[in-house]
TrEMBL record:
Record key words, sorted: DNA-binding
Database matches in InterPro entries: GAF, GAF-like_dom_sf, OmpR/PhoB-type_DNA-bd
SMART domains, A to Z: Trans_reg_C
Entry keyword RNA-binding: no
Any Pfam family matching the protein: GAF
GO biological process terms held by the UniProt record: phosphorelay signal transduction system; regulation of DNA-templated transcription
Organism: Paractinoplanes abujensis
Molecular functions (GO terms): DNA binding
Ranges of residues in domain OmpR/PhoB-type: 243-308
Signal sequence, start to end: none
Name of the protein in its database record: OmpR/PhoB-type domain-containing protein
Amino acid sequence: MANPWLALDAGADPVERIRQVGRAHERFLAGETASGPSIRSVVADSWKRSAVALSGPDATAPIDLSDTDLESYRAAHPLASVLPIFRDLLGGLAEDGEHLMAVCDAYGRLLWVEGTAKVLRAGERMNFVPGALWDEAHAGTNAPGTALAIDHPLQIFATEHFSRPVQRWTCAAAPIHDPATGRLLGAIDVTGGDHLANPHSLALVRATALAAEAYLRGHLGPAATAGSVTTLGRNEAVLTVEGRRWRLGRRHSELLVLLLAHPEGSTGDELGVGLYGDDASPVTVRAELSRLRRTLGPELIEARPYRLRAEVEPDFRTVVRLLEHGRVAAALEAYGGPLLPFSDAPGVVKLRRLVDDRLRAALLAARDRDLLQTWLHSPWGTDDLQVWEAYAQLLPSDAPSRPLARARVAELRREYGLLATSVQRPRN
């Protein structure tokens, strides 16, 4: 095929192609490999992802948002400002009685679906409605979902759809990016009959996506500029962005750390587990997140999923990055102490141990007396038996500090009730 993103070659018989791809789809569902001249590689790869994610080929896209939640979410979405452009360029298709125009966010969640009443009702029968999730993981192979998955414009033709209820449709979609950051914002899609499988529909949605990005380049406010977050050795995180400074309470500090640990975004449930473990209450988590968003402002925290929009550098990430580059001394200097040391939130405890363990392992591997001594003279390292043992072993036999180091090792072994010469330090 000359263009792998187009569904049909020039002169191809659409009816015959529907039959060929349909047979290949059934063979794939029966366990055979998706291959052959009738199956585009982009479709075969998408079928594989869909088969892993979905319960079967008759799955229906679930509704994720509705009513006021949907209204407030899409009103705040960056693509809301581009809706007039979509309507201007694709409105003719949406009004001709044969097509749907749809806009989704970066997670495949449909924000707007427009067309005549008749075609909208047809779309409703497969849950192609605002608030439904049409990413591949929830709806299988489809143009907007697959365009997001591969970050490229493409067509999906009839039986190329993984889900059988969608195979009467053909669609063309193109992803849209934030021109300032390159971050994926969503996709624009046109859905209709088999006649959409032509070069013009793909060129049209691609041109519409480019027009949207051009508009956003001049009208969308840039992402918040770089800032910093201090969390090491203190129980209240300090966030600084664009000259503004926030000192957060304990729970909001924990939430901020969890958001920073997952810059790609987290659901409310994931944040709840990180805060409270299995005892998480969705109501309590939503309330805390709402209060944090009011404190910091919606320009800093996005929802669904929750993540920071600002480009900030937390101090714990700085330590890890320095270690990854082999700069152990610089990492030790940047380390201000355990991450939110009094926090017992499971996600924070896990991250705290990860940072501490990586730093200690690097110190022990470096076998540098000065670095080990710096750690041992800190409040968090003074009772670290394993580092004391390593330090004592590195001291020359005639060093004045050797007897003191050995005495400290013996003292800690008695305190911990240990006889072994090398043990992990106790956990807080």
